[in-house]
Amino acid sequence: MTSSDGSDLATRRRDAQRLVKHLQFLAENYVDQALVKEALLRGLSQSEVAKLLGMSKKTVNTHARVPFMRYASAIDPRADDRVRCDREFFAYVWGSDEAMHAAVARCKQYDRERLLVESD
After folding, report:
1. How far apart, in whole angstroms, are the C-alpha atoms of residue 18 and residue 10?
2. Which of 112, 108, 35, 12 is nearest to 20 (CA)?
3. Residue 94's pLDDT is what?
4. Dihedral (CA of 12, 18, 24, 26) sign
5. Distances in Å between the alpha carbon of 20 and those of 26, 96, 100?
6. Torsion sign (Cα): 73, 20, 37, 96
7. Residue range 30-83, pLDDT digits in tens
8. Is 74 left (phi over 0), alpha (psi -120 to 50) or beta?
9. Got the DSSP string for 76-118?
10. Cα dist from 117 to 14, 59, 63, 107, 120, whole Å
């Protein structure tokens, strides 16, 4: 639907910006956390992981200490639409749904083994 005052254009821009912020959040939190935990499970030190992934050692340490769990969606009329994009984004990052599920399983394995967190 289009409007003569251009409000539909402003809405589209706002929706695009929210989606980009959401994907950035996923990349900086869940993808980075999964990569850090995978590297640590492979036996790399935090310093090696920091260098490999271009992160500070503090960021690596933070990702290593935070249990993997889903986030609460922002209060926004299209938040559910954004969350529906998550699976496609993660599958794109890891290359397939199976690899995405394996990455999540490895995060949960790390949490159980190193953080002593029960996972669902």
Report:
1. 12
2. 12
3. 95
4. negative
5. 10, 21, 20
6. positive
7. 999 999 999 999 999 999 999 999 999 999 999 999 998 866 555 667 677 777
8. beta
9. -TTHHHHHHTHHHHHHHHHSSHHHHHHHHHHHHHHIIIII---
10. 38, 20, 14, 11, 10
Q: What confidence score (pLDDT) does residue 2 get? A: 65
| pLDDT top residue among 63 and 84 | 63
Question: Are the C-beta atoms of residues 90 and 32 closer than 8 Å to each other?
Answer: no
- Locate 100 and state its tokens: 């995405």
What the block records as the tokens of 14 is 């706002």
CA distances from 8 to 15, 22, 109 (A): 10, 21, 45
Residues written for the chain: 120
